[in-house]
Amino acid sequence: MNTAHTPTPKLPVTALVALVLVSLAGVAVVRLSGVSASQAEPSPAMAERWLRFEDRADGGIDINDAPSAHRIGEVAPGTNGFLRSAVRGLVRERKRQGVGAQPPFRLVALADGRLVLEDPGTGRQIDLRSFGPANAGVFARLLPGSDSQAHP
Q1: InterPro entries per the record (predicted)?
Q2: For 19-78, how does the pLDDT look when each residue is reduced to its tens digit (9 = 90+)?
């Protein structure tokens, strides 16, 4: 059996070790300094509404203003898949974390142009504009002052 050992070139190995060490040092500095993109100054709210989404027996959804309990919109059975999936995802996270149905959801239009649906019970947020203007418009109609609040 031939046990001859081929020498490993030192320069590539040294460069690789240096790259790993510099990367680890950079990550450590960022972590320890507390700097991150998620800690950017939050944009102020331009409009907001606290909402409750209630399933109906016929498969529709009633959308209620949480503080007043008045119905501000409805989703007919089998329609508006985007609204249904967005709310369903937030409700699924509530169940996973053991948060009940009581805390209302917050819909907020921010000064930086984002439209966000957030769940204060879990801390989860959905940036609705990232799904396109038509999908975001479904929720934008639910904000106070919107021209068409009746049917998202």
Answers
A1: PuhC (IPR017495)
A2: 888 787 777 666 666 555 555 567 898 999 999 999 999 999 999 999 999 999 999 999
Distance between CA atoms of residues 67 and 65, nearest Å: 6
Euclidean distance between CA atoms 72 and 13, whole angstroms: 65
Residue appearing with tokens 């329609």: 79
Amino acid at 106: R
Residue 94 to residue 123: CA distance in whole angstroms = 10
Distance between CA atoms of 37 and 28, rounded to whole angstroms? 16
Mean pLDDT in residue range 11-23: 80
3-state secondary structure of 40: coil
Q: Do 72 and 149 touch, CB atoms closer than 8 A?
A: yes
